[in-house]
């Protein structure tokens, strides 16, 4: 039996931990690309930034449509077949 290590470092545990990972985790390109899909670069955060101003523009358009429907009604009846008092050219 080997004498106890005063530092607490076990080379066998270290070697097992270093070699027991699957081969994909040792791929340098996978590790280098992993940051692209975490934090502010998640799929949802990337999609959310693809249409800047769309939410504000849609909200402004809906407010204008509501304003137009409520306040800008044409109450005079122009253009609805009411031709009394207007000169019409009959052919």
UniProtKB/TrEMBL annotation:
Any Pfam family hit: NDUF_B12
Main location: mitochondrion
Residue ranges of the TM segments: 51-72
Bilayer topology term: Single-pass membrane protein
InterPro entries (alphabetical): NDUFB3 (IPR012576)
Protein location: Mitochondrion inner membrane
Keywords on record: Electron transport, Membrane, Mitochondrion, Mitochondrion inner membrane, Respiratory chain, Transmembrane, Transmembrane helix, Transport
Family: Belongs to the complex I NDUFB3 subunit family.
Its job: Accessory subunit of the mitochondrial membrane respiratory chain NADH dehydrogenase (Complex I), that is believed not to be involved in catalysis. Complex I functions in the transfer of electrons from NADH to the respiratory chain. The immediate electron acceptor for the enzyme is believed to be ubiquinone.
Name of this chain's protein: NADH dehydrogenase [ubiquinone] 1 beta subcomplex subunit 3
Species of provenance: Knufia obscura
């Amino acid at each position: 039996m080997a004498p106890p290590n005063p530092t607490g470092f076990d080379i066998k545990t270290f070697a097992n931990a270093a070699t027991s990972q699957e081969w994909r985790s040792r791929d340098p390109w996978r590790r280098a690309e992993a940051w692209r899909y975490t934090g502010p670069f998640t799929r949802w955060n990337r999609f959310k930034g693809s249409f800047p101003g769309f939410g504000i523009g849609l909200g402004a358009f809906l407010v204008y449509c509501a304003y137009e429907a409520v306040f800008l009604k044409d109450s005079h009846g122009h253009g609805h077949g009411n031709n009394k008092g207007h000169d019409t050219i009959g052919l």
